[in-house]
Amino acid sequence: MADRPPAPRFSVLVPVRNGARWLPGAIESVLGQTVADWELVIGDNASDDDLASIARGYGDPRIRYQRFDQYADIFPNFDRTAALAQGAWLYLLPVDDRLAPTCLARISERIAAYDRPGRLAAVITAAARVDPDGRSDDVRYYGYEGSAVVSDGTYDAAGWLRRVCAPGSPPWDGGAFSRDVIEEMGTFYRTDIPDMSADLELALRIAAFGDVDYIDEPLIMVTGWPESHTHGRFGRNLSNGAAYTTQGAALAVGLRAHEARRAVSDEERALVRSAIARSHLRRASAHRYRDGGRGRAAAWRDIRRAARVSPETVVPFRVPQVVGLLLAPRWLLVRTREFALERRRRAAEPGTTRG
Known about the structure:
Elements: E1 10-16, H1 23-31, E2 38-45, H2 51-56, E3 63-68, H3 74-82, E4 89-92, E5 98-99, H4 103-113, E6 120-130, H5 138-142, E7 153-155, H6 157-164, E8 172-178, H7 179-185, H8 198-205, E9 211-223, H9 229-239, H10 246-259, H11 266-289, H12 295-309, H13 311-314, H14 319-327, H15 330-348
Parallel strand pairs: 1-2, 1-4, 2-3, 6-9
Antiparallel strand pairs: 4-8, 5-9, 6-8, 7-9
Helix pairs in contact: 8-10, 10-11, 11-12, 12-14
C-alpha cells in the first residue's frame, strides 16, 4: 500500500452558498499563495449554483469540494466545513474575501518563530476593507469611531482580552487557528452566539487556550456589500427589539471561557463590561439614524443598559453623546454622521497632510 501524503500545514476553509460570482476569486487567491503547503476545502451549503464545476475546473488536487445537501445556517455550515479539514492550522476564508499572496507565508513564519513556554493558539492578521470593486472601504466600515489600535506581536490571554475589548472596531478579520486547540474547545464557532458576532466570541475565546500572535499587516481583503450576511444580521438585531447587542452577548460568553480556565482580574472584567456598554451606545445611535431603527425609545433602552453594565463608561464622559442621541432630530444625526465620515474620507485620501 502506498504511503499516504503528509497532511498539509494549512486548511483554507470556504463555506459557501450560491457564491458562483465570488468563488473563482477566492480560489485564485489561495492558488496565488507563495507557499504550497495547503489544502482548500469548499463546503457547499446546498447551493443552487453549480459550484462543483467551478471547483473542479481548476484541476488542482489540493482543492477539495464537498456538497452538503441539507441547508444549514451560516455558522453551523462553517463548523461542518471545518470538520473536513486535514491541516494543522485552519483558516476560514469567506467566499467574497481574498488572501494577499504572502498571507500564509507570513503566518507560517510566525508559527515557526514562536518560542514561548506555552502554546500558540492563533495567528491573526490585520484586514483591508474593500468594496466589491476592490476599492478601499475602511472609512465606511470603521465609521467615525475608527479602528482599534493593536500592536504587532504575541499576546497572552490577558493581553489579548484587552485588545479585543479596546475602543474601536477590531482591525482584523479571522486568521489561522490551531486545529488541536479547536478540537480541545469542542467547536470552531459557537452556534448559540447570536447573529454576526460569533467571530468576535471566537477571537476572545481562543486566547483562553493559548497565545495569540498578531500581524499588523493587511493580509486579507474583506469585501463589504449590502447583501452580505453581516449587513443583514445587524439590521435584524437592530429592528427585532433584541435585549442585547450581538457584540455584547459574544463578549460575555467569551469572558466566561476565560473565567473557566484562569484567574480573571477585576480590571479585565471591567474592560469587558465597558466594551459591552459601548456596543449598546453604538446601537442606540443606530436606532436614531439608520433605516430600521426603532427611534428614541429604543435608543433610551440601550443607553440605560449601557449605564447598568458600566456606568463609568457612560458617565460623565459620554453625557453630551447621550443627550444628542435623545434630543437631536434624525436628520441632524444623519447629516452629522455623513459630515464626520466625509472628513475621514478626505483625511484618508493619498497625499492628504494634517496640519
